[in-house]
Design a protein that fits this description.
Elements (H helix, E strand, L loop, with lengths): L12 H10 L5 H24 L2 H32 L3 H6 L1 H8 L2 H9 L16 H4 L6 H40 L8 H12 L12 H33 L32
Amino acid sequence: MQPSTPQPHPRAHWRDTWNEVIFGHETFAGRLFDLILLTLILLSVLTVLLESVRSIRDSYGPYLRVAEWTFTALFTIEYIARLISATNAKRYARSFFGIVDLLAVAPVYLSFLFGVAHSFTVVRALRLLRVFRILKLTEYMGEAAALRIAMKESIRKITIFLCAVLTIVIIVGALMYQIEGEANGFTSIPAAMYWAIVTVTTVGYGDISPKTVPGRILASLLMIVGYGIIAVPTGIVTFEFARASSRVPLRTCSACGFQPHDQDALHCKRCGAPLST
């Protein structure tokens, strides 16, 4: 006779209720919870921003610190409640929003224990992304997924492009260092490379500028190249975004999780497994 396998304990009903309120947005309680949470996030971020202003910090510093610790306590309770009520607490803790929720409270405790500047609590602004759930803008999530896929597909091309730009910057920086020299502000090749980056990106701070005729000619050529360079990554991402958008609805391989696939695809392009229709 085989020993019976232990049955998992049934999930408590109150945890399902909490999960519906905290993670859901279909009920009135869920929408109210999200609205209150968003209000607290805005107020906490505003507190951090105000504390960075010296005149306000000198006049209302103690009140701002009390407010900050109050928000931290509330967000800590909320984070613990999410861990308790989540269907899979480990998966939630490792998810994007789970990490952001942790970062919303960790800097304050770190500032108290180790003296870390708690201005990093401004990361709470990332949690405002939850507004998409309240406003029920889920139809835009498909476009967000298409943009994510476009960035993923573009990263190799953009990396090669940036390597080419870096090569140009090094060569032009070395040339400008030889042409202009330390007398005209190009004190080293790295300093000349900094000037080349500022020029090729069309930022143009003006803190370093060529004074000789050959240097100005080289700078003019680099400016013209810069205009062409700006359009390259934009074109790459635009092309990949258009291609990713044409694949909506996104089809995900159930075997390896790869996406997207063309609408008429029958097998996964990565592992070859049949795609569900």
